[in-house]
Amino acid sequence: MATTLAEKTTMAEKTNADRNATSAGERTLLIVEDDKSFLQRLARAMEGRGFTVMTAESVAEGLIQLETSSPAFAVVDMRLGDGNGLDVISALKRRRPDARAIILTGYGNIATAVTAVKLGALDYLAKPVDADDVVNALLALEGKSAEPPENPMSADRVRWEHIQRIYELCNRNVSETARRLNMHRRTLQRILAKRAPK
Q1: How far apart are CA 127 and CA 162, in angstroms?
Q2: Which of 14, 111, 177, 190 is the most buried (most CB within 10 A)?
């Protein structure tokens, strides 16, 4: 059966009303992050900016939170102890298609960013990130990306963070880290001995 012009107009108005309700009215927010101190800081900061915040420290906890409520917004860490934060994003979008979510990650990865956007994430922010960057990304107008951060991490800092993460994942084994990064062992040792770049 064909849809009439009046029905199409009504559906479009309903979609726009849903979007406006999400961005202007309801400010419920789910934060899923396994770094407890960062989670607590971000939750407090977002409450101070007018959000009603729920928190979870794992994919499992995040999915349990979604069984009882469907928040308008979500901030989800990509790598969690028990899985991938994208699972939480896709579950949220199934329950509430108009929800606005962003993914946080400790290192940049274009392929993962593309996957995150396909699953419904609005944006992809590299940690460390402050509450203002998160709010700007969550409340960005439809079709517009958020303003770039005032003081983003330098390319040297992003590289250093990535190396540190792989080093930690390899249980601080220099030889294994160098092998996985396809880097000479002495070069890696020099990088590890230096302070983090700004």
Answers
A1: 11
A2: 177
Under CATH, domain 24-138 is a member of which superfamily? Response regulator (3.40.50.2300)
pTM of the complete model = 0.62
Does domain 155-193 fall into CATH 2.60.120.560? no
pLDDT per position as a tens digit, 38-63: 899 999 999 999 999 999 999 999 99
From residue 103, how far is each of 25, 30, 177, 178, 193 by CA, in Å? 22, 12, 26, 28, 31
The answer to whether the beta carbons of residues 81 and 58 sit under 8 Å apart is: yes
197 DSSP assignment: P
**Residues 118-163: tens digit of each pLDDT:** 777 777 787 778 888 888 888 875 445 555 556 666 778 778 777 8
Residues 6+ apart with CB under 8 A from 120: 89, 90, 92, 93, 97, 99, 101
